[in-house]
Each structure stands twice: as structure tokens, then as C-alpha cells.
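Deliverable D2.4 — example input (C-alpha cells):
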């Protein structure tokens, strides 16, 4: 009886589904987090009577046939890259992207990571860095006498010096991807470029096809608590139904074993 094995694949799939949902819920308050969704595919089929085969010399054919599936598998955990709500923080180093694009971050190994988390800070050397101390690219250095830092919609970073003179400190750039769902998440709110995402296309904010910058604001997670709870209940019910199938198959085995 194949029902045991088929139902077992269903339980494993829903177990992974719950793990994905739990990670989404755990990151409800993570700045710039993008929720994931588990996607499934059916497995191979056994053809006990193939549709389209001839059943007589007159050319009559089987209209439907008999196929028995072998269960389900997880084919992807798709990242939903929709924008999250923007919240005001009042911190002059907090910035969010309204529209398409990612901030570029220089990792300790010299490679570039990409993030929607614009909660930046000023390092001991005056550089604009992430909360982990990774440099924002291209490098922006704030002099000791810089105050009232402003970052406009086009990513231009300016400040005032002690003589009330405007200092032009640099230009933020953002990157976009043909398939942003193909980016690889590595933790620390960072993504890496992959062959699936395509190469990074870098430009100034507010350019055609790119989002602009909003200072004093951060992009929150795009996780919706109600949707996640609904998905969790659906996954739980699907898990229960598959477990009942296993129980029913076991009882059928028992009945067959006890035949006299």
C-alpha cells in the first residue's frame, strides 16, 4: 500500500512549510526583511493504464487512464520582494528606499552584499556603516566637524561645518536586479548576487527604474501577521489530514493481516 509513503511526503512538506512560516513570524520586526513562501510540486506518477492507448483494432482509445501519484516535494522557498511599510525614526543616518533597489554593503571579505536595511551609523573613523560595522558603498566619510547631515532623494549626502558652510560628502548608489527573488540570503539582512538574480545594475537613486531615498525613515518587514497565521492554520490542518491517512492505511493493513 503506497498511501503510507505518499502521506509521509505530505507531512514532511507541511513540516517545512511551518518552518518557513515560523521564520517569517520571527522576523516580523526585522528591518527590510522579505517574507518567504514554500512552493510544492507533485512527484512522479505510476501509469497503470495510460491515457491515449488503443483498446481495440477499431482505434478506440482510453480517454482518461489510471495514474497513481507518489506524493509531494518542496521545490522552492520563494522570497516575496514586495516593499514593506515605511516607519519614521528621526535618526539622521536612517534611510529607506522607496521603490526598486538595494543598498550596497562591503563585507569583511571584500565582496558586496545587498540590503534593504538602511539603519546606518557613523563609525569611529567617520565612515557610514551598517550596524555590524560594514562599509556602505560607495564609501561616505563624515568629517569630525560635520553636523546636520542630510541625504536627499537622489542620494546626495551633505552636511554643515562649523562655519555654516555646506559640505558635499558623497553620493549614495543603489543596485537593482533583473530577478531580485533570485538573490541569496546570507543573514545579517544581506543578500548576495547569484546567476539566478543576474548582475547588479548600479545607478543613482531616483534614476529611471530606481527608487529614491527617504531619510529619517526605515523600511519594516513585509510580513503580515494575519496572513502568516492563516497559512499556519492551513499547514497544520494539512499535516493532520496526512497523519489521518497514515492511520487509516495502518488500520487497513491491520485488517488485512487479521483476515482468517
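Example output (designed residues):
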Amino acid at each position: 500500500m503506497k498511501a503510507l509513503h505518499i502521506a509521509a511526503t505530505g507531512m514532511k512538506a507541511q513540516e517545512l512549510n511551518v518552518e518557513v512560516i515560523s521564520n517569517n513570524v520571527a522576523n516580523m520586526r526585522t528591518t527590510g526583511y522579505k517574507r518567504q513562501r514554500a512552493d510544492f510540486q507533485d512527484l512522479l506518477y505510476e501509469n497503470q493504464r495510460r491515457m491515449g492507448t488503443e483498446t481495440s483494432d477499431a482505434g478506440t482509445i482510453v480517454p482518461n487512464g489510471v495514474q497513481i501519484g507518489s506524493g509531494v516535494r518542496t521545490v522552492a522557498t520563494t522570497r516575496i520582494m514586495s516593499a514593506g511599510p515605511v516607519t519614521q525614526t528621526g535618526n539622521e543616518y536612517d534611510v529607506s528606499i522607496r521603490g526598486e533597489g538595494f543598498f550596497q554593503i562591503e563585507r569583511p571579505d571584500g565582496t558586496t552584499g545587498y540590503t534593504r536595511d538602511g539603519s546606518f551609523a557613523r563609525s569611529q573613523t567617520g565612515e557610514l556603516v551598517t550596524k555590524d560595522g560594514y562599509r556602505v558603498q560607495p564609501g561616505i566619510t563624515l568629517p569630525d566637524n560635520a553636523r546636520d547631515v542630510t541625504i536627499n532623494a537622489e542620494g546626495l549626502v551633505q552636511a554643515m561645518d562649523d562655519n555654516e558652510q555646506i559640505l558635499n560628502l558623497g553620493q549614495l548608489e543603489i543596485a537593482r536586479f533583473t530577478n531580485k527573488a533570485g538573490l541569496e540570503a546570507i543573514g545579517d539582512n544581506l543578500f548576495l548576487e547569484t546567476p539566478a538574480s543576474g548582475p547588479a545594475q548600479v545607478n543613482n537613486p531616483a534614476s529611471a527604474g530606481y527608487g529614491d531615498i527617504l531619510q529619517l525613515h526605515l523600511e519594516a518587514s513585509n510580513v503580515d501577521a494575519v496572513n502568516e497565521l492563516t497559512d499556519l492554520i492551513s499547514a497544520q490542518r494539512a499535516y493532520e489530514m496526512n497523519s489521518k491517512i497514515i492511520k487509516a492505511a495502518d488500520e487497513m493493513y491491520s485488517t488485512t493481516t487479521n483476515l482468517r
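Helices lie at 3-26, 225-257.
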